[in-house]
Amino acid sequence: KNMKAYFIGGLGCNCYYPQDFFNALSFPVTYLDIYDSRLEEQLISLQALKDWFMAQVDMDDDILLIAHSLGADLAVYLTSVYDEITHLVLLDGGYINMDKICPLNVEIEDSLNYLQTNVYESLKKAVITEKQSSAVWSENLERAVKESFVFDKVQKHWHLSLSEKLMTHLLTIRRQAFRNLSFLKNKNVILFIPEINKETPIWKKRAIQTIPNFLNLIEITSCSHSLYMEKPKEIAVLLEDKMKIRPLF
After folding, report:
1. What confidence tens digit (pLDDT) does each residue in 206-222 have?
2. Which residues pair with 222 in a beta bridge?
3. pLDDT tens across 125-139, in order?
4. Nearest-10 crossing angle of helices 164-177, 104-117
5. Interval 35-83: pLDDT, tens
6. How far apart are CA 168 and CA 112, in angstroms?
7. What angle do CA 44, 89, 184 make, to 5 degrees?
8. What pLDDT, on the 0 to 100 scale, is given for residue 247?
9. φ, ψ for residue 156, nearest 5 deg
10. How many Cα atoms within 13 Å fall on the side-chain side of residue 10?
11. pTM over 0.90
């Protein structure tokens, strides 16, 4: 059986964010766009999430699913549901029960507030601001930032293109989708996280302590939550080394 690789990004991702990472891998990866605003009426339940996934992937192959942050939380659920997903790579996600951290309504309110306040008078200003706060920069990351903003003709400013409705649905579905990683003991799973140090929040350290032993946990030094953007080559090498999957592609 052949294997196909797919990627689901974190909240507000677009196809340019993981491009440097994809380029560092020796096999092709298909980007799955779960943040397309046209999905806002469709992605309203766990069943809708499964329907969306089934429509995107080829179930005749074994599947390697790579996912980041909120995408990783959804990927754990999908991997627990579909036998075809034999390999799972989690990029700092999939192991935190959000219900233990804050109520859903607070998370939605904070996220909506972020969308409404993250506005710029020009696209150039948005790019400069992102560049200044980024640990690394590349042409793909610049394209990613440009792609993630749209111009509001009424307000005369640039704002993030992520639909408020879709974001609310996805944050809700993430809570419903939460699965303990022990559900995946017959799968090949790697979890990449930023190195645990004194800056790591207590709630995150606690969540990491609950990770089952069968899972391959890899800490990446000097990086943030956006680890695959900051260390694309390093993570690509480690992923291929640990997964031992190249002959399957």
Report:
1. 999 999 999 999 999 99
2. none
3. 999 999 999 999 999
4. 150
5. 999 999 999 999 999 999 999 999 999 999 999 999 999 999 999 999 9
6. 8
7. 75
8. 65
9. 60, 40
10. 14
11. yes
Task: List the structure tokens of 18.
Answer: 């993981």
Tokens 């804050």, residue? 102
CA distance 237 to 191: 14
Exposure of 146 in the CB half-sphere (CA atoms within 13 A): 8
Beta bridge partners of 220: 194
Q: What would the two tokens of residue 249 be?
A: 């592609």
Let me know: does 54 contact 155? Beta carbons within 8 Å.
Answer: no
The pLDDT confidence band at residue 243, using thresholds 50, 70 and 90, is: confident
Per-residue tokens: 209: 């302590």
Query: Please, are residues 187 and 245 in contact by the beta-carbon 8 Å criterion?
Result: no
Select from 108, 104, 225, 105 the least CA-distant residue to 175. 104
Token pair of 193, please? Answer: 């996280």
